């Protein structure tokens, strides 16, 4: 048995944001040092923000280097055939103490042409919501670019966007091109393509500590926006001790596992799997070793780990590529 094949955890990459707060510490026990920490990047190979292994024999190694050493064993045969040694997803926890900007992400074709990057299709799972917390996803009705520009110019963009009140357990799928914003009072688990390309459309005229407004990308966004009405909320089952499908798209599949006792996982070596612990705690037993996880933990299961057990009382997101 290869001693480099085991569940991998990573040191969180913490990001200060103008809209951030303290929930990453108070709720998820992340080692933040700032009262405006907005993001914990759990698993990343974005240039300049590459995750480092936090446990076991590979501790201190960069994820990108581990992939180079054992691409098929870690990524999976199908993922490696499709993406080579690129890790195709980015995993985050977000704390929106204030409203995020209204923004949009380009699709693969546009991102490749403009930025030599993946596009950004993503999903959100609401881990905690203050009363009345809202998100913006897409347009209320069918729209077009001239309407969008007109409302942007007269400061009424919000009037044509779909504002949705949300609560804990809600899940949303945002295809690239969907205008969106996370509202204040939300703690969210986010799964997305490996991309950091964001076009910011409106930022409430906020200024940073130096009195500067953040850059807007109104013209770049014109070609990226999907002007059709979208249905982004996902309805899913919550059967205990088994995966319940939330999202199944070309970029990732996400299940919810409400773990109340134990379950055996037996899978192929086609794709890696990632678990994000939303609530509670669980043990994962593999190759006569036991690994423990709690709320806020994220763990990467190499594709070569094809049989293991999970035991505990926890709510877990399971993500893989199919």
From TrEMBL:
Report a single Gene Ontology molecular function. Answer: mannose-6-phosphate isomerase activity
The record's cofactor note says: Binds 1 zinc ion per subunit.
> Coiled coil where?
none
Which residues carry out catalysis? 200
**Domain Mannose-6-phosphate isomerase cupin: start-end pairs:** 247-320
Superkingdom field = Bacteria
> Which GO biological-process labels does this protein carry?
carbohydrate metabolic process
Task: Please list the residues that bind Zn(2+).
Answer: 105, 122, 180
Keyword annotations of the record: Isomerase, Metal-binding, Zinc
InterPro entries registered for this protein in UniProt: Carb_Metab_Reg_Kinase/Isom, Man6P_isomerase_Firm_short, MPI_cupin_dom, PMI_typeI_cat, RmlC-like_jellyroll, RmlC_Cupin_sf
Keyword Phosphoprotein (UniProt) = no
Checking CDD domains in the record gives: cupin_PMI_type_I_N_bac
Q: Which cofactor does it need?
A: Zn(2+)
Which residue numbers delimit the Phosphomannose isomerase type I catalytic domain?
11-116
- Protein name per UniProt: Phosphohexomutase
**Species name:** Flavobacterium crassostreae
Q: What is the lineage of its organism?
A: Bacteria, Pseudomonadati, Bacteroidota, Flavobacteriia, Flavobacteriales
